[in-house]
Amino acid sequence: MVKLNLNELEKLRKNTKDECSTEIIVSMGTCGIAAGGNEVYDYFSKEIVKQGLPDVLLKKTGCLGLCYIEPNVIVKTKDQPAILYGNVNMETAIRILNEHVRNSQIVNDFVVAMPSEDIYCLCKKQPEKR
Amino acid sequence: MNRYIFLSEPGNRSSDLFFYIQKALAEKGLDKKIGLVRTQNVGFYSSMPVMRVIPDDIVYKDLTHENINRIIEEHFIHKKPVTQLLHKVASPYVRLENRNEYYKQFRIVLRNMGCIDPENIRDYIKRDGYRGLEKILKNKMTPDDVIDELKISGLRGRGGAGFPTWKKWKLTQEVPGDEKYVICNADEGDPGAYMDRSTLEGDPHSILEGMTIAGFAVGSRQGYIYIRAEYPLAIKRLEIAISQARELGLLGPNILGTDFSFDIELRWGAGAFVCGEETALIASIEGNRGMPRPRPPYPSVKGLWDKPSVINNVETYANVPVILDKGGSWFAKIGTETSKGTKVFALTGKTKNSGLIEVPMGMTLREIIFDIGGGIKDNKKIKAVQTGGPSGGVIPESYLDTPVSYESLQKLGSIMGSGGMIVMDEDDCMVDVSKYYLQFAVDESCGKCSPCRIGGKQLYDLLEKISKGSAVDQDLDRIKRIGQAMLKASLCGLGQNTPNPVLSTLKYFPEEYDEHIRMKKCRTGKCKDLVTYLIDPDKCIGCSLCALRCPVKAITGEKKKPYFIHQDMCIKCGECYNVCKFSAVKRD
Questions:
Q1: I need a labelling partner for B588 at 20 to 30 A (CA). Which of A35, B141, B402, B424 fits?
Q2: Interval B167-199: pLDDT, tens
Q3: Is A50 on the interface with B (CB under 8 A)?
Q4: ipTM here
Q5: Which CATH number is B430-519 given?
């Protein structure tokens, strides 16, 4: 990467676009990993390759603060609000991939409400029309 | 689908409310347009069930059938929210316009948790990362401008003591000379506290940016992060973050093409609690044994290698970029008169939802424990909450309506501390809790000054006597006297605050100490020497459950006849007491 100057930073900020229409974000702080987040992450990464899902971006993130329901997984799709799942084991991960990621069907029993508002971009991926 | 309803119900989720809403939506022909989702809620415990409508992002309470019909009619068909049923919970301590009023928590330090990949600098930049630094350099702000902005914000040190951050920076800035250091104290060691670890693991760049801004303000070119070696993941992510920031020219020589240069290195701590004390930390970075020295001179004037050094903790630095980006006056709209901004707490212990939370200063402990934490596990009664780890104190249930701020917690004999918050219920013995913290402080005392080295051990021995039932009334006076001496004469914060847990429990729970000393009883059964478990032959039906559960096989008997506990073998674990369905096991 080339070193940025004062004007290029803002450009980089604006030009960094989401490359994929769907994101799977796994909470992988120490707490998430201890609760099994690693296995869930590995499962998603394998399946994305195996099932050929180039439009799905798999990401790690830090602790969301919801340590009592780790591992946590967030799924953002194009026309649905960001959905946060708690207590995701392998079984739930399989359902999330097959029902939510592939077919836009929210896996009802494992959804958790987001704990706080976001001072920067409150779930930017929500549909905008009212 | 253009709208979603997130329904949160208490307890088991098989109530008919979900199906009622589903049916009502279908009757109006809205079931294709409005998605219904069941969620576990975070933050509305006292008023469940509630429903959140997305993307409008508003929350309704009082969900009777009648009200649901009304919400569907007015909100979903006529697009007018039902104002009478709105459930606004926002704290009055956030005085910002356009803020969402449906959340208890307000996240500044944890702003990027769950949104960014900590190992990818672009994610951080995209969410306005490095914009605080960019603003400073672009607008040609002077170091004084930066310090003024911090002064307006009212940010105080989040490590526990609450010294105004701008003042600390100013002191260092005013010392002449160009060799100065910026140090981040990431030596988090309080039992039950992990705010800093999570911040470093989830958003390492916010610390790097905060430190770089500090470097600019005080005129330093070099920063150090002193981090515990026990945090391997945080170290790994910090190393990745530092190398990515260097690659993009956000760290190193000539940052963003300007003539400001600043770089950061990691220094690993070897796990001594006392190294969280600033002078001991500096000694440790220098390669010496981690021991505190008397202050003044303060590190701001004479710190690392005798050069002026700014030391702040992780959470303080994480606040800095936001203050520079959004402005000091924006930040000052959050919190109380004297304590501005938010505080991150690691909420642990007997609370239902343990985890990391961030709330505006001024929120009461009760709101934190019951609304965010969801109350106490197994519907037990809360007894107290401990803040500030081994240096803090215990706050009893009757003071839970105290707002969280540096002053209010200090007034109660506890401290804000770095943010550990341990909730205790009726099963916790206050003597036992104090003993635990004292044991920790005694183990971690560096031994340099005698009040801490000897006083801590004496206090521990006295508590040991109390928990064994061999103490006398005068021992309580001794505890108070030794405690006062340590408070006054210890060299550093570790020794000065070691008596806090025992002094505060003694203040708020004198009857428990009294029971231990005079009646030789421990009501919770935690002090094992004061407890005997007996089986009441009249109540025991001989089901053998206790005998099966007993880990040392101390219970014998014949089925359908009363069982018997052999006292010489009993280890007093209380397993039989908990497991008996007929209340036949007695704790005496």
A1: B424
A2: 999 999 999 988 999 999 999 988 889 999 999
A3: no
A4: 0.89
A5: 1.20.1440.230
